[in-house]
């Protein structure tokens, strides 16, 4: 922990216990690595400070980079981008972990109809998790969190380079692309331009074992 966290993050982590503490550390580790890869800087992890604003949004102290973090039991993911170019929202969930009872409050009949078109390829819990994860990612991109869920409606589901991709009503030019990592689903929400950059190789996904 002392090799990863900035001194102010060490103060913050003291208020957390158990799983929340590990998630905080793993989330910081992922985002800091992403920052070093993106910027090519040779900095100590402990010199990078990621704080949270009053809404919980993570941000780099003294760096013009946008940051998004998510964690579940097994994994943490961090996404970093140049704040002037692009923002990203990221979320991770265990596959199939979101059940009908939970999501029923957060999806409407049009979305259920849309999902039914994919039932031949994916089971119901998998699709519910996709929608939940996508909504979390987009709500992080827009920085509101769960408060936004009631306003988000999936309008179209398609595949991009073999990955499920979701588009939302009234949120133009933003796409949420799903990625499977082990038994987890990762949703990345960003301007559609970002996904073109993945194809051209200027944007990277990288996996770390720790
Ligand atoms: C954003 C939110 C959907 C994330 O859900 P979660 O179950 O905590 O799960 P995740 O692991 O995917 O994400 C956690 C990370 O999201 C980030 N985050 C928190 N709030 C955020 C927001 N408003 N916008 C963008 N990112 C946010 C943080 O980096 C957090 O990790 P950290 O606290 O270790 O830095 C949820 O926390 C939320 O709705 N927050 C905003 C409003 C709210 O209820 N605040 C009360 C906080 S006590």
TrEMBL record:
User: Which InterPro entries does the record associate with it?
Assistant: 4-PPantetheinyl_Trfase_dom, 4-PPantetheinyl_Trfase_dom_sf
Top-rank taxon? Bacteria
4'-phosphopantetheinyl transferase domain residues are: 87-181
Gene3D superfamilies in the cross-refs:
4'-phosphopantetheinyl transferase domain
Provide this UniProt record's keywords sorted from A to Z.
Transferase
Pfam families referenced in this protein's UniProt entry, alphabetically? ACPS
Protein name as annotated: 4'-phosphopantetheinyl transferase domain-containing protein
Q: Which organism is it from?
A: Blautia hominis
């Amino acid at each position: 922990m002392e090799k990863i966290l900035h001194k102010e993050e060490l103060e913050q982590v003291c208020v957390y216990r158990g799983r929340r503490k590990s998630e905080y550390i793993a989330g910081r580790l992922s985002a800091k690595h992403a920052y070093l890869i993106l910027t090519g800087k040779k900095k100590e992890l402990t010199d990078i400070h990621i704080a949270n604003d009053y809404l919980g949004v993570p941000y780099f102290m003294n760096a013009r980079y946008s940051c998004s973090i998510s964690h579940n039991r097994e994994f943490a993911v961090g996404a970093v981008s140049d704040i002037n170019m692009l923002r990203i929202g990221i979320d991770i969930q265990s596959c199939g972990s979101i059940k009908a009872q939970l999501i029923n409050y957060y999806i409407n009949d049009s979305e259920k109809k849309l999902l039914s078109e994919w039932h031949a390829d994916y089971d119901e819990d998998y699709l519910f998790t996709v929608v939940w994860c996508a909504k979390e990612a987009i709500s992080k991109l827009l920085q509101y969190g769960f408060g936004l869920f009631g306003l988000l409606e999936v309008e179209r589901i398609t595949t991009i380079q073999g990955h499920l991709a979701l588009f939302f009503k009234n949120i133009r030019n933003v796409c949420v692309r799903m990625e499977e990592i082990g038994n987890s689903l990762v949703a990345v929400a960003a301007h559609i331009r970002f996904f073109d950059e993945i194809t051209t190789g200027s944007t990277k996904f990288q996996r770390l074992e720790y």
